[in-house]
Amino acid sequence: MTAATGRATRALAALFALLTAVQLTALLGDATTVVHLTKPALMPVLAGWALVRGGPWPLPAALLCGCGGDVLLQIGGETAFLAGMGCFAAGHLCYLALFARAGRGRAAARAEPRTAAWAAAGYGAAWLGTVALLWSGLAAHLRLPVAGYSLLLTAMALAALGAGPWTGLGGALFMLSDTLIAAGLADWPRPPVPQFWIMATYVAAQWLLMTGATRDAAPRPGPERALVGPWRP
Question: How far is it, in rounded angstroms, from Cα 212 to Cα 169?
Fold first, then answer.
């Protein structure tokens, strides 16, 4: 890493930490204007950080799709909600492209088939149980879009689990964050200041996914290559 790259990495990390702190504090203080100003900036800064760290193109693409979803969800209304869900779905497809390739070459190659099968069964059961519980509480025209989106999210989280522990935790937190959003749609009980917990788990999820995808960016000798290796131009 060059000195300039190191400085850029530290600057973007500090900016992301600052924006996250301001965003979460504003949510706790119900400072709506500050929330609306800082939320759209989070994922572009994280995407820039990923690029400086040598991240492959699907990674910043996924983060920028998250930015689009963040903006649309802030607008409010059903149309914006569905469009925002579409943006996040596109981001999950980018993550799937990245983690499926990484999982074949790295962690998944070392995992016991039985362990992988249990993980798939657990995530599948979580998806099916959540959809079943939410189904009656959702508006009829939202049921299939939410079920389809949550299935894609579950597939991404499972692929992230196969790519490594950091990304695996990130995928699980992403599922938790979106489950809290879905709970609001179905009028389920939620923790106090639910938007704080939704945003805290979401930001942590995206940071873990980015960190896990870039932490081994330097090429390694031998058959195991870095996560970003297959995507380098």
Answer: 9
Q: Which of 2, 8, 100, 73 is nearest to 45 (CA)?
A: 8
Q: What is the pLDDT at residue 103?
A: 55
Structure tokens at 36: 């609306």
Whole-angstrom Cα distance, residue 181 to residue 177? Answer: 7
CA triplet 184, 185, 190: central angle to 5 degrees?
15
d(CA 59, CA 91): 9
pTM of the entire structure? Answer: 0.84
* pLDDT of the residue at 112: 60
User: How far is C-alpha 203 from the geometric centre of its chain's CA atoms?
Assistant: 8
b/e burial code for range 98-109 (CB count within 10 A of at least 16 → b): bbbbbbebbbbe
In the predicted model, residues of the chain with pLDDT beneath 50 are 107-109, 216-233
Hey, what's the torsion of the CAs at 11, 40, 203, 5, to 10 degrees?
Answer: -20
Q: How many residues are listed for the chain in this entry?
A: 233
What pLDDT is recorded for position 97? Answer: 92
In which residue are the tokens 């800064």 written? 45
Terminal Cα distance for the chain, rounded: 19
134 φ, ψ to 5°? -80, -25
Kindly report the number of other CB atoms within 10 A of residue 124's CB atom: 14
DSSP 119-176: HHHHHHHHHHHHHHHHHTTS-HHHHHHHHHHHHHHHHHHHHHHHH-HHHHHHHHHHHH
User: C-alpha angle with apex 150: 193 to 145, nearest 5 degrees?
Assistant: 100
